[in-house]
Write a structure and sequence with these properties.
Blueprint lengths: L7 E5 L3 H13 L3 E5 L2 H4 L9 E5 L7 H11 L4 E6 L4 H9 L4 E4 L4 H31 L10 H14 L5 E4 L6 H10 L8 E5 L5 H9 L16 H4 L4 E5 L6 H13 L1 E2 L8 E2 L3 E6 L3 H6 L5 H7 L2 E4 L10 H16 L5 E2 L1 H7 L7 H15 L4 E2 L6 H4 L35 H5 L2 H5 L9 H7 L2 H15 L4 H8 L3 H11 L25
Parallel strand pairs: 1-2, 1-3, 3-4, 4-5, 6-11, 6-12, 7-8, 8-11, 13-14
Antiparallel strand pairs: 9-10
Helix pairs in contact: 6-7, 10-12, 13-15, 20-21, 21-22
Length: 523
């Protein structure tokens, strides 16, 4: 059938005049209409993608009720409007229970029918939106949405799979930024309660005095400002899941009430005396050391053991550095979609640098750094110079060679004959070294800038800074000068003074602004 208006209607009526009248009415309203005089003929349209079926309840050997049941097995999203002319209202009600949208009695009021169809169109649109949202949730919170090939994350995936189908309480442990709420949502979304609500409560984000009211609700007049009854999060999550984040922030007095709710599945709102039964699954998480808190009498042992039916420990990012390339690619795709950027790859040396950093903020910090680099970059590939210096140089330390010897990390590449490449800077110690000494292997010694300054001359330090900048930007003097915080002409002058035989020329290649070698506040 050709679709106009996007809605296809099938009219099933064994009385010819009524059938033709309905077809004309609906066709004039812009619907694409087909008709059948029996349920058997109606079934030939089963694969046509019909949106709405208007069917008489009583027709020959196969009734409208039989047609409804058979059709719903094959195409459950189709909406049925039952028409009866025999006063069999109870049969029509039974049809609604079987999945029909509604029923109308003969004779049909044309305007009432059109209004009914408009309501069906609106509901179908809402149902489609809900289904699309559900599909997005399934995609976002499926196990495939949680990135990780490391052994630690594989254990997390297995525990999510096993715990999702149960009603048991789950305690999720992990440092801040490891993705505890994402794990909780994955458990809910893969559970039989997926169609119910997922309610998250962050106890660290609210005053301790409000946590009880937030969880269990309150009655009118329970405290100053309680002008109306308020439903708590436990009650809002009935039929679904409540996720209590940072449960380690609970005061001991509130821990008793939570324990009772877990054991009895009953809550009492603040200021009330009526108990409310709650069919709510509880997932909890904390970044604190609960066992240590128990030793300090800050967390009840009985509550811990009640929560600790299933424990999922999420490893920090520093313990699964091999997952960084996968995480970075996923985050790049997300940022590209959100911001309209078109950065598609990461330089290998940038990945290496990120895998050397301990990531105290875990996955959340990695996401923020990826987004920062992508927003500030004007290239299609993220490079090492896009990385903030506090990550390139953790703890404010830079690898500096021992005085008097060049290091690969601080000097430009040499030619095959051993002479510095164009634009290179020879240190004074290296320039006067005897060949035998130059050939002897000397181990570079990492040091802080303060330690380097104590053992090097100002000229040595300047030489190494210039050499490192030139190597970093492949001898592009414009970018090297910007990174050093000096003008190109000043850099040319310094290079001419250190290498008088090398011709000095103005740069011919403009380059993007480069960040300084060491950002302020990180030394």
């Amino acid at each position: 059938m050709v679709t106009t208006n996007g809605h296809k209607i099938l009219v099933v009526e064994d009385e010819p005049n009524e059938r033709q009248s309905l077809v004309r009415l609906l066709h004039d309203e812009g619907y694409q209409v087909n008709a059948a005089d029996s349920a058997d003929k109606a079934l030939s349209y089963l694969d046509e993608g019909v949106d709405f079926v208007l069917t008489d309840l009583r027709m020959g050997d196969v009734s409208g009720m039989d047609l409804l049941k058979h059709w719903k097995l094959k195409q459950p999203e189709a909406m049925f409007l039952m028409i009866t002319g025999h006063g069999s209202v109870q049969t029509a009600i039974d049809a609604i229970r079987a999945g029909a949208y509604h029923y109308m009695t003969k004779p049909i009021d044309p305007q009432a029918l059109l209004i009914m169809l408009q309501n069906m169109v609106r509901q179908k649109a809402e149902t489609r939106k809900v289904r699309e949202l559900q599909n997005r949730l399934d995609e976002r919170f499926s196990l495939s949405s949680i990135i990780g090939r490391s052994a630690g994350m594989q254990r997390v995936f297995e525990l999510i799979r096993r715990s999702a189908t149960a009603f048991s309480t789950v305690l999720i442990l992990g440092e801040s930024g490891t993705g505890k709420e994402l794990v909780a949502q994955a458990i809910h979304q893969n559970s039989p309660r997926r169609d119910g609500p997922f309610i998250a409560v962050n106890c660290a984000a609210m005053p301790a005095t409000l946590v009880e009211s937030e969880l269990f609700g309150h009655e009118k007049g329970a405290f100053t400002g309680a002008t109306d009854r308020r439903m708590g999060r436990f009650e809002s999550a009935i039929g679904g899941t409540i996720f209590i984040d940072e449960i380690g922030e609970f005061e001991v007095s509130l821990q008793v009430k939570l324990l009772r709710a877990l054991e009895t599945r009953v809550i009492t709102p603040v200021g009330g005396n009526k108990e409310i039964r709650v069919d709510t699954r509880v997932l909890a998480a904390t970044s604190r050391d609960i066992r240590q808190m128990m030793l300090e009498n800050k967390f009840r042992e009985d509550l811990y053991y009640r929560l600790n039916v299933i424990t999922i420990e999420i490893p920090p990012l520093r313990q699964r550095l091999e997952d960084i390339p996968l995480l970075a690619k996923r985050f790049m795709d997300r940022v590209n979609e959100q911001n309209g950027t078109k950065i598609t790859s990461i330089a290998p040396n940038l990945v290496d640098a990120m895998q050397q950093y301990p990531w105290p903020g875990n996955v959340r910090e990695l996401l923020n750094i990826i987004e920062r680099m992508m927003v500030l970059s004007d290239k299609t590939q993220l490079e090492i110079d896009d990385l903030p210096s506090f990550i390139r140089y953790p703890n404010g330390k830079i690898t500096v060679p021992a005085p008097g010897m060049p290091a690969a990390s601080a000097t430009p590449s040499s030619t095959a004959g051993g002479a510095p490449a164009t634009g290179g800077v020879a240190t004074s110690a290296a320039a006067t070294a005897a060949p035998a000494e130059a050939a002897a292997p000397v181990e570079a010694k990492p040091a802080t800038l303060d330690e380097a300054l104590a053992t090097m001359t100002l000229e040595d330090l300047e030489n190494r800074a210039i050499a490192a900048a030139l190597q970093r930007f492949n001898n592009n003097r414009t970018r090297a000068a910007r990174a050093l915080g000096i003008s190109v002409r000043t850099l040319q002058r310094k290079l001419g003074a250190k290498n008088p035989d090398e011709p000095v020329s103005e740069p011919t290649e403009p380059a993007a602004e480069a960040p300084p070698l060491v950002e302020s506040g990180t030394q």
